[in-house]
Structure formats: C-alpha cells, structure tokens
Amino acid sequence: MKTSTSLKEMKQRHEAITMITAYDYPSAKQAENAGVDMILVGDSLGMVVLGYDSTVPVTVDDMIHHGKAVVRGAKQTFVVIDMPFMSYHISPEETMKQAKRMIQETGAQAIKVEGAKEVITTIGKLTNAGIPVVAHLGLTPQSVQVLGGYRVQGKDKEAAQQLIDEALAVQASGAISLVLECVPAPLAKLIASRLDIPVIGIGAGEHCDGQVLVYHDVLQYGVERVPKFAKIYTNMNDVVHSALQQFVAEVKTKQFPTPSHSFTMKEEVISELYG
Ligand code: KIV
Ligand code: NA
Question: Which residues bind 3-methyl-2-oxobutanoate (predicted)?
Fold first, then answer.
C-alpha cells in the first residue's frame, strides 16, 4: 500500500505514478492486479457508470456505495475518492460531516476536491482533521457550466500564472497530491517542477509525476467517444458485443445449454417422475 510519503518519494526519484479510476469490485480488483499505484473512485462515475450527462447529479451516497465496493476489491491499493458536486461548499460543518462519512464508510485513504479559492481553506481544515486531501485543478468538471465547456485551461499568461499560484496554494494548505486536468504540457511541466507533492496529470502531458485515466476510456467500455487525451488500450465494446450476441444466438438456436452445462439425476428418480 502506497502512502502520501511513499508517493512523494516516487516523485523525488522520478518514478512515474500510475492511477486509474474504478467504480466497483471487479474494476478495483483488476486495477490492483495490474499494479496501479493509486485508484480513484472518480465522480466520473456519474457519466461512465450511471449514465448522466455530467458529474453534477452524483451524490455523496452514490460515491459511498461505489467507494465501498472499490475498497473491498483493492485492499492493498491507495484509494482516493471524489467529494461530489456541492458536497464541500455549503458550510464548513457540512463539508466535514460529508468528508468524515466518505472516509469512515468506505475505508478510502484520501478524498479529492476540485478547485481553489474557498476550497484552499477547506483543504487546510480537512488536513488538520486528519483527512488526506488530493487537490484537482485545471479543467474541473464539477464547474463545467462556469468554465463554459470541457476545454483546455491555462492557455494564456494570466490564466497560466493563476494556475501556478493555485497549485502552490493547495500544496501550502496541505494537499498530498494534485490532479491537473487538461492544461498545456509546458504549463503542467512547470507546475510539477515547482511543487514537492506529486502532480498527477490527465491531458496534461508527459512531464507530470504521474498519469491518471478513466477506466472506461482505457478499455473503451460502454463509451463511444473518448477525450483526445485518453488512450484506448483495448476495445471492450466489441468484445462484449460479440460475446452477448453469440449468447443470444446460441439460446435461440438451442446450442446452449449443452449437457455439460446441465445437472442430471438418478435414472430411477427420472422414471418415477415420468411415470
Ligand atoms: O472523476 C474522475 O474520473 C476524475 C479524473 C478524471 C481525474 O476526477
Ligand atoms: Na472527478
């Protein structure tokens, strides 16, 4: 099991950190067996598993339900769980209460929150309470309506400088790591070099300390299109489609089940039953 300390040491020795999302028992088990350093129970859950158009409808209860299954499937892996939309903005009391639930009820090692400004204070409070926090800057999908769409962040000098300042601020308030989403590679490189904590990129180029991708994008599983920054390593849609189509066809044509998939009983019982 990685720790915030061992993850920082990986950064220091330039060993790339791997992170992938998981949302249930099998995906968590597969991620752990593949040897990832960290698992993220992302609120991308809303889109890739629950079928919503964005991450906005996802609730704390949804996250906890799926987070528990992930932790059961990956007991040896550092699990980070997303605080969903508006669960850390209403009041400090509400934030602490929900964060406590997310950690205690799931058994995850850390939570992740999006954004800067007031969230920077929140990161400090959570850290003081003993909850490890991963920050998330750049494209922050919970604010997609404010950002005006899923687009690259920090492209001009002013926006880039702001992102650098925010990254330094989340580190200063105690974040153990930073997820940087959809920012130009040269900016991500600069931020990673300025910070001591590991910067895990998604659409942030090759110079981050680690990389995170969404499970369903990597496997092209249930998703048709994937973002430009994602790499598809296999096409599960095709694999699943042909397997399920074959099942349907074999049942229709009585090729399945065969005697090898069936149970029998003693001959004398059969003749008694049939009279
Ligand atoms: O919810 C998610 O999957 C994420 C990653 C894209 C970083 O936050
Ligand atoms: Na997320």
Answer: 43-44, 82, 112
Instruction: Provide the pLDDT for residue 83.
Output: 98
Same domain (yes/no): 265, 158 = no
Other C-beta atoms closer than 10 Å to the C-beta of 232 total 15
Reported ipTM exceeds the 0.95 cut: yes
| Residue 178 and residue 243 in one domain | no
Closest CA to 113 of 101, 95, 128: 95
What is the number of other CB atoms lying within 10 angstroms of the CB of residue 224? 6
Q: Which atom of ligand 1 is nearest to the CA of 55?
A: 1
Residues touching ligand 1 (Cβ under 6 Å) are 21, 40, 42-44, 82, 179, 181, 202, 212, 214
**Count of structural domains, the chain:** 2
| pLDDT tens digits along 130-170 | 999 999 999 999 999 999 999 999 999 999 999 999 999 99
State in Å: Cα 43 to ligand 2 middle.
4
Neighbours of ion ligand 2 (CB under 5 A): 42-43, 82
Residues 171 and 245 in one domain: no
